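EI: anyone free to look at a 360-residue chain?
SC: sure, send it
EI:
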Amino acid sequence: MDNKYVRGGKFDLDPRETEILRSVLKAHVLSGEPVGSRTVSKGLRMDLSPATIRSVMSDLEERGLLCQPHTSAGRIPTEGAYRLYVDRLMRAPRLQRSRAEVIEAALHSHQGEITDLLEEASRQLSRFSGNVGIVLAPELKRIVVEKLEFVRVAAGRVVAILIGRSGVVHNRLLELEGGWSQADLNQMGGYLSEQFSGMTLPEMHQEVQRRLREDRSSLDRLKRKSMQLGEKAVERGDAAGAIFVDGTSNLLDSPEFADIRKMKSLFKALDEKKRLVDLLGNVLDGDGVQVTIGRENNLVDLRDCALVASSYQSGDRAVGTVGIVGPTRMEYVQVIALVDHLARVLTRFLSGDEPEAVNT
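SC: here you go
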């Protein structure tokens, strides 16, 4: 840190305060226990007396960066301290090359099927962070249509297959009046693919409705029925994406969740997919890796946790989210690097780009 003071909102720290706070943070991340002055002194890169360390720790407590859970115990960092660390104190996140290569290979083996790919991504996030890995699949409203196909399964019943440019496949069973052959359905799918490839589902739905209102008389029977079938196929294009969660049991050994009530509350939050979808959906329109700590989280049940998340893209569109949930004392440097790398790899796979160089 080259500057004389570390500035973080209301906290302006001098080099001595910065070094002691950094030492407390490092020790607390490793143990999860209150940190005393003796432990702090072992992690310092400057020579300070125990009395000086205790005095500075007391000052940091008064300023809201440390707290003392018990009178005789050491101190632990507050959420504000971790926020200051993430914003100002930590080094630039870089993922180890060996980890990046393992992740790349694991995801590459599942590249052909997006459900397997995203499930594997959640496993890799959990595996290398020791926390909970979460991946939000592309929402239907963000899927860019590449092709539509219709398959006759019974008289009056058709399966609509929507294929997105990112490889997302969505099936929907439709009721269809009249006796349409598979050859007719192939023509309908080809016509709709030609007309609407490159649009999102809501865009396609809007355009189909417009054409049915304005051009109905100019459409022949097959094209008119194609439009009607296309409208049915995409009418619920705002449905939320699936979500993949892995590694919940990793939190069982965290001292923060030794309280059974806290653990039950956390597990309940991680099991309620709709709430997680809403939480991760908020990340889609942001830039880069986003970190929310403790009470910054909208979900009350995650107030003892941190969420590190980033969107991934298909082409130039953000379509889904990858994230890690863990205690507020997580190793942010590695977690941020891991989330950023996963998001980049998924973006590359879904966009068909060449591999990037891996930083070490």
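EI: The radius of gyration is 26 Å.
SC: 👍
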